[in-house]
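Project standup — Tuesday

K.O.: blocked on the structure for the chain from last sprint. Re-posting the sequence here as requested.
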Amino acid sequence: MERKRVLVLGNMEKPGVPEQIEALRGWLEQRCEILAVAPASAAVGDEARSAEVCVVFGGDGTLLSAARVLSGIGTPLLGVNMGKLGFLAEFSIEDLQKHFDDVLTGRIVPDERMMLDVCITNCREHPFCSPVANDVAVSAGPPFRMIDLHVGQQDAQIAQYLGDGLIVATPTGSTGYNMSAGGPIMAPTLDAVAITPIAPHSLSMRPIVVRADRTIRITAVRVNPGTALIVDGQVSSGLCAGDTIEVRRAAMPMRIVPHPGRGFFDTLTNKLHWGRSPHHGP
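H.V.: unblocked you, prediction finished:
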């Protein structure tokens, strides 16, 4: 039987990650062909792009980096949590050893999660394009004056946002910055995006959910010198007044290997304590 080709990525700057990968390398090589071991934020070679599974050691941020690096390829990502939250990187080392054979044989089927592509389309000073796994945020930045963003989708004008910025989140990213800003939690396999204002200067401005198959355009009408476009909390670009940001659904989703022992709402409850009744002491 032909052995599966596996790419191993990790946050090599996180204490314990390189050592853990090295400790497991022999165990992994008994079960699969390891194409490469590399930092999650680094570009991978053509050979590694043929991987049938990518095992990502780190935390949720490491998995987001890997998703962008492998965007457009569709390699299933299995996140091994060596961080704090482990919302996307669901597997412990013990879980990996318990379920890895089922992943290789296809008994555990990856979930498809929508990704986005974002581009600043008309700025010579800040040409920028990036795949997006979690969210696109426009942050006011220094000197922290209110900014003015006009948002539309296709030919329809959605709103004029005055405030500290806004977030466009995928369903996967809805439990991140979007949720912290008061945006809606979305089931991770939905084909929709959330648009959430950050500290809007109006009581009428509320988060909305829109269909994902139409391009969202954000026009930076008034911004600060420090205003920035931020992708997944990890990659950023400056913005100028008059810049147009286009956000559209990526042609290919990312594929996440789910933990077979828990579903999305189990993770919400266990990791974020969502849906639990308040605890009242004696």
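K.O.: great, moving the ticket to review. The helical segments are 17-29, 60-69, 93-104, 177-180, 264-272. The mean pLDDT is 92.
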